[in-house]
Amino acid sequence: MKLGIRFKLITSLTGIIFVPAILMSISGVREKHTDPIEGAIGINFMFLIGFLAVAFVLCAYLLARVITKRILLPLKELNAAAEQIMNGNLDVEIRNRYHDEMGRFSSAFDVMRARLKESLDQQAAYERSRNELIANISHDLRTPITSIRGYVEGLQDGIARDEQKVTKYLAVIKNKTDLLDRLIEDLFQFSQLESGQLVMDIRELDSREFLEAMIAPFEMEFHDAAVVLTVERPFPSRPIQVDSDRMAQVFENIIENAKKYAGNPAEITISTRDEADWIRIVIRDNGIGISEEDTPYLFERFYRGEKSRSRAFGGAGLGLAICKRIVEEHGGHIGVQSKPGAGAEFYLTLPVVKED
Questions:
Q1: What per-residue confidence (pLDDT) applies to 295?
Q2: Distance separating alpha carbons of residues 91 and 105, to the nearest angstrom
């Protein structure tokens, strides 16, 4: 028998037994006392006792209802929820919302359930990403290796008979080995960033000199290319602390992405703004853009969104994750604003050195 039912049954039986006993006692008092005054006093006393007994039974019954509603039923719900969680169902919700100790305990239990579910969902998502990463890396490694093997076998078999063809084969082999090198370097750098072992050579520089050094090589590279690169000058001149080599990697990644996925004709615009405590750098392209579903996750490790753009974001989904970590190591922020068909706008901010 359930605890709440047993509790109510006990109080009811107490009343059933106790009240008749009082009535029998009153009857006995009437027979025992022949003196009317003594009999009346005894009867009144017994009626008082009876009234108190009835009041006690009523209070006990009401108390049983309160305890059942506020304690026993919530405990029953918690027990059922615990069994559901034990069986792997984390969608069960605790409905007790009384503003008492039991209600607060139920709310805390429900918060714990929700956080456990969130943690397990994140773990499952990470595991899926990890498995996809392994598959992607296997594909990314296998593709250039297969290509290299084919061209090497072509050289060995004498397919490339003239010097021009040999030079072409060697150029392709070099290109594929460079691709492998970049992939391995991405994995190595990300591993160092995750473990905190990547050494940053941060020095104080003038932001104008720094930006000129970052952007000038791209202006030379795109001068004869089918890409219109617009750089809005002058750059702000403020003291900043940066690791030029690491930040060059960030610019390389973002600008190369913009180049690959810009429109036709391709247009890339680089602008900067002095925001008091920050230097803001914006790189815009007129390309295919990024879907709203992918935008919030672009900088997460191992994330590969829309396949048409996934190669641009680090191959194995690490390129932008590395950029994010590098910028954050500088105390800055990186983000993106984009809509499908409207291009993408990547921005990053670097903190200005405060003067004493």
A1: 84
A2: 18
